[in-house]
Amino acid sequence: MVVDQKHANHDSELKPPFDFVGRDKGPYPIILATERLSDMDTLERVHAYWRAANYLAVGQIYLLDNPLLAEPLRPAHIKPRLLGHWGTTPGLNFCFAHLNRVIAERGQDMIYIAGPGHGGPAAVAHSWLEGSYTETYPAITQDAEGMRKLFRQFSFPGGIPSHVAPETPGSIHEGGELGYSLAHAYGAAFDNPDLVVACVIGDGEAETGPLAASWHSNKFLDPSRDGAVLPILHLNGYKIANPTILSRIPEPDLLNLLEGYGYRPHIVAGHDPAVMHGLMADTLDQVLDEIADFQAGRAARLPMIVLRTPKGWTGPREVDGRPVEGTWRSHQVPLAAVRDNPAHLALLEEWMRSYRPEELFDAEGRPVAEILQTVPAGPLRMSASPHANGGELLRPLVLPDFREYAVEVPEPGTATTEPTRVLGRFLRDVIAANPDTFRLMGPDETDSNRLSAVFEVTDRAWNAEILPVDENLAPGGRVMEVLSEHLCQGWLEGYLLTGRHGLFNCYEAFIHIVDAMFNQHAKWLDATRKIAWRRPVASLNYLLSSHVWRQDHNGFSHQDPGFLDVVVNKKASVVRVYLPPDANTLLSVGDHCLRSRDYVNVIVAGKQPVLDLFTMEEAIAHCTRGLGIVEWASNDAGAEPDVVLACAGDVPTLEVLAAAALLREHLPQLKVRVVNVVDLMRLQPPSEHPHGMPDAEFDAIFTPDKPVVFNFHGYPSLIHGLTYRRTGHDNIHVRGYKEEGTTTTPFDMAMLNDIDRYHLVMDVIDRVPGLRVEAAHLRQHMSDARLHARAHTRAYGEDTPEIRDWTWPGDM
Amino acid sequence: MVVDQKHANHDSELKPPFDFVGRDKGPYPIILATERLSDMDTLERVHAYWRAANYLAVGQIYLLDNPLLAEPLRPAHIKPRLLGHWGTTPGLNFCFAHLNRVIAERGQDMIYIAGPGHGGPAAVAHSWLEGSYTETYPAITQDAEGMRKLFRQFSFPGGIPSHVAPETPGSIHEGGELGYSLAHAYGAAFDNPDLVVACVIGDGEAETGPLAASWHSNKFLDPSRDGAVLPILHLNGYKIANPTILSRIPEPDLLNLLEGYGYRPHIVAGHDPAVMHGLMADTLDQVLDEIADFQAGRAARLPMIVLRTPKGWTGPREVDGRPVEGTWRSHQVPLAAVRDNPAHLALLEEWMRSYRPEELFDAEGRPVAEILQTVPAGPLRMSASPHANGGELLRPLVLPDFREYAVEVPEPGTATTEPTRVLGRFLRDVIAANPDTFRLMGPDETDSNRLSAVFEVTDRAWNAEILPVDENLAPGGRVMEVLSEHLCQGWLEGYLLTGRHGLFNCYEAFIHIVDAMFNQHAKWLDATRKIAWRRPVASLNYLLSSHVWRQDHNGFSHQDPGFLDVVVNKKASVVRVYLPPDANTLLSVGDHCLRSRDYVNVIVAGKQPVLDLFTMEEAIAHCTRGLGIVEWASNDAGAEPDVVLACAGDVPTLEVLAAAALLREHLPQLKVRVVNVVDLMRLQPPSEHPHGMPDAEFDAIFTPDKPVVFNFHGYPSLIHGLTYRRTGHDNIHVRGYKEEGTTTTPFDMAMLNDIDRYHLVMDVIDRVPGLRVEAAHLRQHMSDARLHARAHTRAYGEDTPEIRDWTWPGDM
User: Fold this and answer.
1) Given its phi and psi angles, is residue A320 left (phi above 0), alpha (psi -120 to 50 degrees) or beta?
2) Cα dist. B712→A232, A296, B649, B733, B737 in Å?
């Protein structure tokens, strides 16, 4: 009998409180729901494995000692602080146990993403049962003593996190901040044709925006060259304190929704393990067949599973007279007063003994052979998959020589180039040379950001309808564009953590949308630095174009350089920020970032024409130094400068150059030094960042005592924060963005924020001792020039030609 | 004949390129699709109004002069920079024109949210046609000269933004960053039973996470006491450069999806205005009836509309031989080279004349009476709705006296209280006293954040299934919990901007999820400060609990105090940050924030027990000062201190107090001053922030020259940034969070980041001149104490009782 999985159990049967069945009543009779799977022994083994995983999870949450319940539980065996999440754990264990069977039977390569990753005890339990935990952490042996340590270390000082974390073998997904599991799953599946990514999505997580958007990732999956994602929507009914939306909408609505997302949903619902094992096994066989059909072009849709089980399944049914199993009360620790309340202690012991540990572990505490018979071998174990430790699979990119894309610069500052357009040619050839291991992500802005050259060799990934009028769309495209920064980020994270490479190009202001995701990824990288077995992965590279200073026309809402501040707050060992001022420096920085490992690299570079400042050779030297004196713009050679004009970012650099030219024209006796900063982290001392410049070097360039006028791309406070330990920090006067924005022209935008050439000249006059008197007329002239420039924009709607077309004067 | 709206046009007819119909062919014959709407004249007037709005939109994008095309277009009439978004505009105009008819006919109160708000010319055109633009901006008269100014100012220096913006009458929704329209719409509808919020959702925006999650907002809407939202999903097929997902999935999938979200979808699809007017009018009549049924309990679902029209509808069909109408090429400016290319100029003139302006405007440029006949009157005009200028409707909250919730503090620092639990009682009574104008939002954490007292008087809003086991759920609940920070934020913004009050409580780390939304709201508030007709609205209040220092057990992913850095980057005039260290200061701050207007207030306060430090009277004085000396903890009365121990945040304050006690015990001759900072903005100079403390006062408290050890809740660089202009800033040594986190105990968490009492004592010894020698033994003792404390946590899993139970010594 093949039942209709989709409506296998009617909704009304599923309402909590559930009948409490099974564990008190001796060995479960395994009732097979279908005839296709007739191996009763196998399901009994799956069930035993599940019991073992549940037992190990409860033990992690509660026990300091007495792991096998060799003696009656006493308060001294219980942890003083009870931490962890039981509610989702039995469901996670159920999925893992069943997936193991199909992996072993089919030899299917698979990884497991636990969306409800706060159920950390589950992932740890599987790794221990599969042996990979002991392989990774030899002190945690697969015996009673190892089990004791395993229990004790969980969420214990000096131990392991309570969530699925970088420390957890087999995971690419942290279980703290919810919403990203399905995007990570698709990222892992791209270009992994033999891989199935099983992704458990909690019904709490399913309420988040990023997850809600992620369902549509199937429109970007190429069945013929990508792997498959198997979403398992786990409806256990409750979040921390509330019911979940998807568990409480009518089942026809739920099925409509999932079909509307483009999936073929299968429902597995119930609470009696005896029934549920058969249903799940049968369903998994069916969906794996459907995935094969999908990949062979015989089916149009990926299947998915809706798993409806009680929250805290098999846990305490009632505590202190209130229902717990099947309710929000089992979200974290169902029995909270175990140490002090003998009744709770007794309930805990009853609960743990209900899994019959004596049948699951031998006298030495080793898992008995029977429960391991459905566990796959070697790298097929999901807790030991090399895909989940992507650095193991990482191959370096085949990179063309970036110098071959160089812009010729016969005279600095006299011709202009669109830097991102040049980088686009380099990226085009990176894509061509790495057809299976590099992807370019962006929220519909790759063309707008002028990286269009990539479309000479590839297309945008698109697996929905394509019309004759469309351009550059194909299922196998290497450019991934969706109007969701969350998806771009999530896909790329999943792709990188499984051992591939990529770059995310984005409007600068809107990268704030993924601040929280960046934070979590940076924390992941930071944590992996301390975990020897985690092999380095490719860096997460951001290219922020369409930046604050060129959003004059889009106005205030598009102007925000604050992502840099978010980035710099994270651990210095994982974050890098680059502000290349022209095309050749962008090429050099871009090449460097694509070669790097385990960093988050943020590159801010404009798409609008900027002056070509450095020959390729100079650009390489300048980027290697990270910051340096621009000799041709300075007139202090062999002398001490009177003032340092520093800059970081393309527009601020242009304005500094123009200010230097004005000063040199009008005050030729003034010794001006122009310093450009490409690598922002060079500004910090070496104690604060690995790229930090030693104080002596810093003082030599910025001087310990001369006025420094620093024209910065972002918020001024960032430069103060990076330099506040420097000798001359009191002399550093920073100009930058200060939330003065409107719809205007490029130069007027600079003037609104006082980063313009005229204001910089006035800054210098105000700060160089004695100059205020000497240059009083010049100061007034500058002020007049600003007024004139502003009046011109108001009258004509554009900047004056002198400003728009300004180049470095050749005779200087 | 009542047609089946849902499948009124078959999908295959809708594929671009569309047949180009209508505007070249003389007046459109109005074909009515149904018999229900038989007033042909009315639809002709709607059509004329639509033509006028389209004409005004094109004029804004292109024209400097010659607004009525009184003479042939010349290059001098054209703006030098062509900016703006045409693609979405005719669709926005179409909706607005048709909504006007039903508003006028039914007297229905309605506001309009333009999700594709980059189509700014549309909203401005309607406001001008409806007369509200001239009422708001008298210089922009409703005649030819006014029209000329209207055109010229659009996206012109000194003019108005190109998106729907705070400057636009009738809007509560900025059109820059996409994804929030539907959440804003629901926020506006809550507690507005007579209001219908029409919300146009672009198919680009529909790909974002926040929008995808927002559809489920209908589970939180109470038909009997809330207003209605009418989502209009506008499928014009393309984003900037790509097709959109929802326009390219099979229509059955689309309908499944929308039904799965719980709506009753109606499709209006086509490109022939003659047909489309009838379809839209009939559909709107039907959905308004369905909304009435929904609100009367006769129907279970809200209706919605899917509007499929060509992108850039009625714009140039082809330019330079390439299709433009119906493709992504009409996203922004369909004719880009108008000034230089006579063919483009001719096309523009042909395009504009196709709307037959001579029929729409009289010789003086005034809209003819006929096209205004479907425009509603007075405040029913969507561009003049007081709901869209919420300050007009704002009533102050009825606030209980917060002093009545005070904790008794007979001796400071000796008893503990959970501050948020106390605030919960105050909020309970705020909710009770303001049953229709205050809501509490949170991502499922109101109980977890210990605000549970609110459930004594209200429930969680829930309009899906409720089971007997559930608690505190009801359709009319005032607490809104959904596992989406985006929805909490979006709903609250919509609620506030329509003149109501609220508070968003959230885990501190995960508030980063809405960084970008906060940025946009802060920019909105900043912009409205310069717009006289925008009346002040209630502040957006964040309560960040479950903060970084008490996420020791949840580990690294839950530890992030960086939202403060994001906040402080925004305009000083709109942001406020408070770190009350105990229950009474939290009450005082909470009351203050609920009374304030036009700010974003961020309150960071713990839910764990903290020492009671201030009596209510002292708390009020301390919060009013914003920062001050804690007299009882200091021993420098009448003398100059040797060291200042400063603190901000509850845990850092506790550690500073303990450090002060240690210093006073072991080094009684040392003069220690303890300073607590509640209002972080007091640290800035008055030139930087309105709350800034004058330098003289600051120097008096922090001293100009003594060492200051500042123990801070967040990242240390923030304090350096705020104080770098202060006299003694080189002497300020800041301790704070430095991304050293793991799963541990509270005190070990402090030790990991060196904000603990022992480290602070060592800091003081290292910094007070001469003390290093004198206190060498004490320094070593402190170091030993730390090692002991850490060893204890590793052995026992919790902090030592001396640390856990520490109170201020009574004999000091």
Assistant:
1) left
2) 43, 59, 6, 10, 8
Task: List pLDDT tens digits, range B447-503.
Answer: 999 999 999 999 999 999 999 999 999 999 999 999 999 999 999 999 999 999 999
ipTM of the complex: 0.95
Rounded CA gap, A680 and B304, in Å?
Answer: 50
Question: Identity (one letter) of the amino acid at B666?
Answer: H
C-alpha distance from residue B516 to each of A601, A629, A685, B574 (Å)? 20, 36, 31, 16
Distance of alpha carbon B807 from the chain centroid: 41
> Over the range A549-558, which residues count as b (16 or more CB within 10 Å of their CB) and which as e?
bbbbbbbbbb
Domains and CATH numbers, chain A: 41-385 (3.40.50.970), 417-610 (3.40.50.970), 627-805 (3.40.50.920)
Please determine, for residue B741, whether its predicted confidence score (pLDDT) is greater than 90. Answer: no
Contact A212, B217 (CB under 8 A): no
For residue B40, what pLDDT is reported?
63
Residue to mutate among A15, A233, A246, A257, with most B CBs inside 10 A, is A257
CA-nearest of A780, A781, A800 to A790 is A800
- Nearest by Cα to A289 from A37, A468, A492: A37
- For an interface test with B, which of A15, A546, A743 has the most B Cβ atoms less than 10 Å from its Cβ? A743
Contact A157 B523 (CB under 8 A): no
CB contact under 8 A, B483 and A175: no
Q: Which SS3 state, helix, strand or coil, does residue B12 take? A: helix
Q: Nearest by CB to B717, which of A15, A174, A721?
A: A721
Instruction: Check pLDDT > 90 for residue A396.
Output: yes
Rounded to 5°, angle at Cα A605 from A603 and A607: 145
Q: Do B161 and A487 touch (CB under 8 A)?
A: no
> Looking at beta carbons, which residues of chain B come within 8 Å of A460?
242
- Give the pLDDT score at B33: 43
| A717 contacts on B by Cβ (under 8 Å) | 568-569, 721
Number of H helices, E strands in chain B: 27, 22
Place of tokens 């909470």: B590
Measured in degrees and rounded to the nearest 5, phi and psi for residue B520 equal -70, -40
pLDDT-derived band at A39 (thresholds 50, 70, 90) equals low
Distances (CA, A) of B687 to B572, B681, B722, B732: 10, 11, 12, 20
The percent of chain B in helix, strand and coil, each rounded to the nearest 5, is 45, 15, 40
pTM comes to 0.95
Among A565, A568, A752, A792, pick the best mutation site for testing chain B contact (most B Cβ within 10 A): A565
Instruction: Check pLDDT > 90 for residue A505.
Output: yes
Residue in A17, A515, A526 nearest the CB of B469? A17
Asked if A174 and B557 come within 8 Å (Cβ–Cβ), the reply is yes
- Gap between the Cα atoms of A131 and A125, Å rounded: 10
Q: What is the mean pLDDT of chain A?
A: 93
Q: How far apart are CA B148 and CA B155, in angstroms?
A: 14
User: In this predicted model, what pLDDT tens digit does every residue of B747-804 receive, in sequence order?
Assistant: 999 999 999 999 999 999 999 999 999 999 999 999 999 999 999 999 999 999 999 9
β-bridge partners, B677: B627
**Which of B80, B214, B748 is opposite residue A798, by nearest beta carbon?**
B80
- Angstrom distance (rounded) from CA B11 to CA B27: 27
pLDDT band at B98 (very low <50, low <70, confident <90, very high): very high
Q: Which chain A residues are Cβ-neighbours of B213 within 8 angstroms?
A: 207-209, 211-213
Distance CA A446, CA A423 (A): 12
